[in-house]
Amino acid sequence: MDLDAIQQIFFQECEEGLSAMESNFALLRDGDRDSETINAVFRCVHSIKGGAGAFGHERLQAYTHQYETLLDLIRNGTLELTPALLDVVVGAFDVLADHVAAARDHDTPPSDAAMLERLVAAAGGDATPKVAAAPVADVAPVVAISDDFDDLMSMLGDVAQSEDGADAANGWRLRYTPGAKAFEHGSEPLLLLRELTMLGGKVTLCDRSALPPIDTMEPECGYLAWDVALPASVAEDDIRAVFEFGDSSAITLTRGDAAPAMAEDSIDALFDLLDSVEAAPVTVAPEPEVAAPPPPPPPAPVPVPAPAPAPVATEPAAPRAVAPSAPVAPPAQTIRVDLDKLDRLVNLVGELVITQAMLAQRLAENQMGGISELSDLEHLTRELQESTMAIRAQPMKTVFSRVPRIVRELEGETGKRVRLEVDGEMTEVDKTVVERIGEPLTHLIRNAVDHGLEMPDVRVAAGKPAEGVVRLAAAHQSGRIVITVSDDGQGINRTRVKSKAIEKGIILPDAVLSDEEIDNLIFAPGFSTAAAITNVSGRGVGMDVVRKNIQALGGRIGIQSREGFGSSFSLSLPLTLAVLDGMIVTVGQQTFVIPLSHIVESLRPDHDTLSRLGPDGTLLDVRGSYVPVLRIADYLGIEGAERNPTNAVLIVVEGDHGQAALLVDTIQDQRQVVVKSLEANYQAIDGVAGATILGDGRVALIADVDALTTRGRFANRPSAALAA
Amino acid sequence: MTIALPAVLDTPAAAPLRQTLRDAIGTGRPIQLDASGVERIGQACLQVLAAAEVAAEESGQPFRIVGASPVFADMATLAALDTLIAA
């Protein structure tokens, strides 16, 4: 793996870290003062700093250093996390996110001077904003000696305890041998040592045995090695994480309670230490090959600190049992997979589903459709497909975690006060949906704050709390994900919307519209009620684009609004775009798939439930409400289809513009189909959302219900017929 | 003779530092290094200093680092090489 690839991982982990921080801020803001919460924030910044150092992002590193210093003071209780301090911490986070983005995109780092000043001031003012400045800076030589002395004592303690065979829980011993390539790619081993001391580690020894005479040494070659003692309370992962971006083979990590072998190690180290305290140049026989990257073989059967818990017994005949490192509960393991590979897998599973359907059809033709193996295969295929889709599923959290920042920025821009409530962020949905929902969602949030919420004084005058609430929620509902963005603001001013729509020529002055229809006018292209065009929203390109984006994802958007009490936008989206449950219908000689998510009911109408409207229009009476009958054949130019509704089947569907009844010849089946993109394989066709391959190998088109109902609705209106 | 160490002693600074110190050792005179202006130092330069100390001792020249700046002291302590300045 080359450095770029590792750096790529670093940035991915930065993303994850930032999003974890954001969730922890939410907890902190809710009054959670659990030390683990602030610790988690500290660790994220700390890891980013470590990586930044390893990859030479100096500005990022310098910034994170100052940030970390402040967090450290909060974490160890020196500073109390007041709301004002939390504001600084959260504000610093935004700059951190910008820093990370700049480092990733090779951009100019953001100007962080002001924020650094705030951090320094918050930390007590005397911290020096320097890269390598240490929180424990001025260590006088005298103190240093006593440090060594402490080490000595603790090592003596080690030896005594080990020899006692007592249950010594004496922490970690780390041998760090940066090796000859220590400074490659601008690495600085001392920074990693610093990281270790931040974890509570203590450098007990500098091994200079490999240091050649000054005349022969290569100045850019590493010769030193260190022993570091770390407290038992530090997690192994945290220690290893320090070296994550360096050469991980440069470290040998052992538990202090590794019994007899460790005692020998400690004695050796003790002598080394004594030597170094006497300031005599150490010229120990070069028994461990310091310059060699692989860790030196331990002198006795020491448990190898391999990540896998496999006990390694080098000498089976050893009289003393090798103390295996304590079985650590395996953390939830994850691996990173290239998205291409995953898509290939999804595609293959799709093909498998199709082949399975073909097989079922062939068997049925040969009167073998009922064999149990076939239904077993069907179950397995379906399960395999669901599992594959689950791999692509991601929690909405990845999108939601960006929202707090947007809200904070909006607060700054608009002067409004906003409390963000988030619910259901762990709801999972396909990656594609997660990726593409961000933009529309951002717009809805901006809209809620800019147009929805009132200014604090207006709110107070209206008897509401000064702080407005924007609520963001996600939930699974009957095979779809429903995301709701709601606010407790002023709601939609329908009188204003309507007059604006008339003014813009979107509707006729004498149009009679229901409340719902008026609300939906804000999705009309070119509609904007904002008195002044603001930076935030109100360019009038917003809501129709939002709706287009949602529709492109196979979703629908709905509004509920009560004047004076706020509005709620709900987005209903499919969980995945790769498969859909559909009803297979016949129109003329063609087979179509109608997505089940749009279907309300299907029926064969009586003559008296149908009424004519105009020369071509037909209305279907569905228990008292009238829906237009749309002939798919007419819209898509299919010959030989049934035209008489009473001889056909009507499928009542719910589209963007309300309900409609699609007229089809017959219903064949209802099943899951794999969606093949028409755009990718042919070209986009209005009224057709995609295609699929049926069991008999034929291609069936998937009807785009929203497009059909929209066209149908406007085609039925004489005034709009030309435009349609 | 007193040699003032440069402010930045990062990895690229190790080669010139080594040369300076070899020259100093070559003179056979006592060596005193002024570390008061050091603002940054890494392993590469620390190990050059450690090697110089050994070489000076072998040739019987007194070798001292004086006036260690906070950064120098801190990094030397961190690397457990504070014996360089303890003398």
Explain this structure to me?
The complex is a heterodimer of chains A (724) and B (87). By secondary structure, chain A is of the alpha+beta class. Chain A folds into 5 domains: 3-122, Four Helix Bundle (Hemerythrin (Met), subunit A); 141-277; 339-394; 396-574, Histidine kinase-like ATPase, C-terminal domain (Heat Shock Protein 90); 579-720, OB fold (Dihydrolipoamide Acetyltransferase, E2P) (Beta Barrel). Chain A is built from 21 helices and 22 strands. Chain A has a 6-stranded mixed beta sheet. In chain A, strands 6-8-9-11-10 form a 5-stranded mixed beta sheet. Chain A has a 5-stranded mixed beta sheet with strand order 20-12-13-22-21. Chain A starts with a helix and ends in a 9-residue tail after the last helix. The radius of gyration of chain B is 12 Å and the shape is globular. Chain B has one domain: STAS domain (Transcription Regulator spoIIAA). Chain B contains 4 helices and 5 strands, in the order E-E-H-E-E-H-E-H-H. Classes of the chains: A alpha+beta (724), B alpha/beta (87). The A-B interface holds A 130-134, 136-141, 144-145, 147, 178, 182-183, 186, 188-190, 193-194, 197, 203-206, 208, 211-215, 217, 219-220, 222-224, 226, 276-277, 279, 281 and B 10-12, 14-15, 17-18, 21-22, 25, 39-40, 42-44, 46-48, 50-55, 57, 70-71, 73-75, 77-83, 85-87.
